[in-house]
TrEMBL record:
InterPro entries (alphabetical): RNaseH-like_sf
Protein's name in the database: HAT C-terminal dimerisation domain-containing protein
Organism: Larimichthys crocea (Large yellow croaker)
Biased composition (Acidic residues): 70-91
Segments passing through the bilayer: none
Disordered, as annotated region: 57-94
Length: 370
């Protein structure tokens, strides 16, 4: 129940960093380490090339299939069946020429298979605190006070007090070993609540708080209503159901957990008792029913402990928690990789080869394993 982290690759991409080039590089790494079926979610920054790569080649929430894109609208080829007839036709008749190379190069967007995608929460919060916060300056009074003259110390103090919860939320979400995906929804929910409380007593920063709340809704609204994200939060013993008083939100997460606990139990039984079912006529009576899975969830929610040790005594809940909370809510770990890479790739090593550079970087980042 303790997170382990490792760097797998730092590849050089030649040419333009297009969405298909990124998808191909990620697909190659997943194949090389045989982890394609093990990845539950990939967290990246909000670059347009990354977003398009996962939008085109990634799984969707509905049916876990890549989005249908780039479907051809050309005429069907007859497979060469009428070649003999065509030779007998007069050259004066209209002839349609088809570029065979274009047909061969046609991309049906099924070449790569990428997992579900998650946008970096820290990057989104940075956008909220900069891009969205700047919209507060449409208020002329706020804009005038925000120009920071010595007589406006009260404004500066209130501004710092307003931005403090945002900074703390960033610190929480960019952790690597002690934070799981289930921390995201409670952190943003609590941040929103703190800003709403500050809004009541604010004298100068009301436009700023309104802009921040609007930015949180714009960038995190879908995540805060995602049943999988809510379920991940509930399955973190530190939070369970105490992080919100909205019964509708909790119901979304609890319904998701119950349905997936039932599916998980059925899959486990079918895999573990295939051979015995052929011999034991009464094997179906041994299967775990919906009541037992509900009891496991109730046992977990009623347990007073708030450490990961609570999960070990409830195997089905533990397995689902591991599945939903393996991914990280932010891509700060990759940013740290780039910082270490900068220490290696110094001016005196400008001629180092890409493979040599990658090996040195991975040796330094994964020194705990050798």
């Amino acid at each position: 129940m303790q997170r382990s982290c490792a760097a797998l690759a730092c590849k050089q991409l030649r040419g333009s960093h297009t969405f298909s080039a990124l998808a191909g590089a990620l697909n190659d790494i997943h194949t090389e380490f045989n982890i394609r079926e093990k990845i539950v979610r990939t967290t990246t920054d909000n670059g347009s090339n990354f977003l398009k790569a996962f939008r085109v080649y990634g799984q969707t929430d509905e049916n876990n299939n890549p989005e249908p894109a780039g479907e051809g609208d050309g005429e069907e080829d007859d497979g060469g069946q009428n070649d003999d007839d065509n030779e007998e036709e007069e050259s004066g008749q209209g002839v349609e020429f088809v570029d065979a190379g274009a047909l061969l190069d046609k991309d049906d967007y099924l070449e790569y298979q990428l997992p579900k995608h998650h946008r970096c929460a820290c990057h989104l919060l940075n956008l909220v605190s900069t891009v969205d916060a700047s919209k507060a300056e449409v208020n002329p009074l706020y804009k005038r006070l925000s120009r920071f003259t010595p007589v406006e110390l009260a404004f500066l103090a209130e501004y710092a007090k307003t931005m403090s919860p945002v900074a703390k939320a960033l610190d929480v979400l960019q952790e690597e070993t002690s934070v799981q995906m289930g921390w995201l929804v409670p952190t943003i929910t609590l941040l929103r609540t703190k800003l709403q409380h500050l809004h009541v007593a604010s004298k100068f920063c009301e436009p700023l708080i309104a802009a921040l709340l609007s930015g949180l809704e714009k960038r995190f609204g879908e995540m805060l209503a995602d049943p999988e994200m809510i379920a991940a939060a509930i399955l973190v013993p530190k939070f369970k159901t105490c992080w919100t008083s909205d019964d509708n939100i909790l119901k979304l997460g609890l319904d998701y957990i119950r349905s997936h606990l039932d599916c998980q139990t059925e899959n486990h039984v079918s895999e573990g008792s295939q051979s015995s079912e052929e011999e034991d006529f009464f094997s179906s009576l041994k299967r775990t029913g919906p009541l037992e899975t509900t009891q496991q969830l109730d046992t977990y929610l009623g347990c007073p402990g708030d450490t990961v040790q609570v999960l070990k005594s409830i195997p089905a809940v533990c397995q689902l928690s591991l599945k939903l909370n393996t991914a990280l809510p932010a891509s700060a770990a990759c940013e740290r990789l780039f910082s270490v890479a900068g220490l290696i790739f110094r001016p005196r090593r400008a001629c180092i080869g890409s493979k040599n550079f990658e090996n040195q970087l991975l040796l330094r980042l994964n020194k705990a394993y050798w």
